[in-house]
Amino acid sequence: MIEDEINRGLITIVVSAGGGWKVEGAKERLRRRGLSLARASSSFLQRATPHLCPINKVHKSSSHDTTLCYLRRSSLIYLTTALMASNKVPVYSTNDLKSTSDDALLPYLTNLPAPYAFTPDHSKSNIRFVVGYSAVAIAGFTFYADRTLGWEATTSPWIIAAVATYFILNTFLTYWIWAVEAGEVYSGKRKTGETISVSSSAQKFSSIYKLHVVYKSAAGKVLQDKRYEAPFTTWFSAEGIFHPEPFRSWVASEIDVLRLAAKQTEKKSG
């Protein structure tokens, strides 16, 4: 078992701040045994959750005298990804496959090495929430007025105005979701000003995952506007287990800025 080799100190897995897994001392053992690095890391990190240590400090496991070293900045991100990998997704549910893939974009794009990391931009989702909750508040208010003041009160001008506002907000919300957000699952900005927008889609009963990526310069010039697609089987096993490394590799191979970030990560991890 890979866990036994880790516990015996034959394999040490280090999570780097730049992203990706790094196996120290026995990478060839993984290759010889044909083991997936993502699978080994996922299984190991779930067992090692209580042993997360501060940045640049080494922790010795009391039971196995194994050196476990993590960098605080990325450990939580990768633990989240590891837990995602341990949960099975119904392989015939396109919606679940798409949602799991979408959720993997956020930790990946926000944990890229400097200066490629993106900070999430929640402005569009914030507008959606404000409009949606406002409509719900108006609906609740008119329902309360009907229940407490009676039918006659609902014919007053302010109730009619509230109902009209409710329908206007819902119409705007529908437009916002379908025309403005348009399937956007991630929007972020780099410290240097470049922005990225990633939208995803997958047709019902289809095994194809589609991405639309728009990458702009700080001045607003479109640097990349392309659409990509790949089968879910590229990063999901036959049992429905999500494997983050193949997913990241595919995304990085298609998006220019992520390709550059991946090269820098490889240089740092040796």
From TrEMBL:
<dbReference type="GO" id="GO:0005787">
    <property type="term" value="C:signal peptidase complex"/>
</dbReference>
<dbReference type="Pfam" id="PF06703">
    <property type="entry name" value="SPC25"/>
</dbReference>
<keyword id="KW-0812">Transmembrane</keyword>
<dbReference type="GO" id="GO:0045047">
    <property type="term" value="P:protein targeting to ER"/>
</dbReference>
<dbReference type="InterPro" id="IPR009582">
    <property type="entry name" value="Spc2/SPCS2"/>
</dbReference>
<protein>
    <recommendedName>
        <fullName>Signal peptidase complex subunit 2</fullName>
    </recommendedName>
</protein>
<comment type="similarity">
    <text>Belongs to the SPCS2 family.</text>
</comment>
<keyword id="KW-0256">Endoplasmic reticulum</keyword>
<feature type="transmembrane region" description="Helical">
    <location>
        <begin position="127"/>
        <end position="145"/>
    </location>
</feature>
<keyword id="KW-0472">Membrane</keyword>
<keyword id="KW-1133">Transmembrane helix</keyword>
<comment type="function">
    <text>Component of the signal peptidase complex (SPC) which catalyzes the cleavage of N-terminal signal sequences from nascent proteins as they are translocated into the lumen of the endoplasmic reticulum. Enhances the enzymatic activity of SPC and facilitates the interactions between different components of the translocation site.</text>
</comment>
<dbReference type="GO" id="GO:0006465">
    <property type="term" value="P:signal peptide processing"/>
</dbReference>
<feature type="transmembrane region" description="Helical">
    <location>
        <begin position="157"/>
        <end position="180"/>
    </location>
</feature>
